[in-house]
Specification:
The protein has a single domain, classed as E3 ubiquitin-protein ligase SopA (Pectate Lyase C-like), CATH 2.160.20. The C terminus is likely disordered. The protein has 119 residues and is mostly loops.
Length: 119
């Protein structure tokens, strides 16, 4: 799926995009509050400055994604063992209120987590 289609469908009220392939799509500054991207391929996606507040990103592939300035507050993330992008979440990413669940005994990031909960 390309950015135009996703944004058009989102603007029409659709929120369930579970399992979609958005690899390398440019979604910078996109307003995607409460979007369901469970299991989505977000490899290499540009989410710079995007709003993913209260979104569902469980088991989404975020490898090589650009999350600079992305609002992930209230998001639900369950990361798989191959996930590399969030080993050190940059300080400029708002992760306040993120529900982090780590599978396969992953190491938790050592960075400041803005009040995020780890389990």
């Amino acid at each position: 799926m390309n950015a135009e289609e996703l944004l058009r469908r989102y603007a029409a009220g659709e929120r369930n995009f579970a399992g979609v392939d958005l690899s390398s799509v440019d979604l910078r500054e996109a307003e995607l509050t409460r979007i369901n991207l469970v299991g989505a391929n977000l490899r290499g996606v540009n989410l710079t400055g995007a709003n993913l507040n209260c979104s569902a990103l469980r088991k989404a592939d975020l490898r090589n994604a650009n999350l600079k300035g992305t609002d992930l507050s209230g998001a639900n993330l369950i990361l798989l063992c191959q996930m590399e992008v969030l080993w050190s979440v940059p300080d400029m990413v708002d992760t306040s209120g993120v529900n982090w669940v780590w599978e396969n005994k992953l190491r938790k990031p050592n960075n400041k987590n803005n009040g995020s909960k780890f389990s």
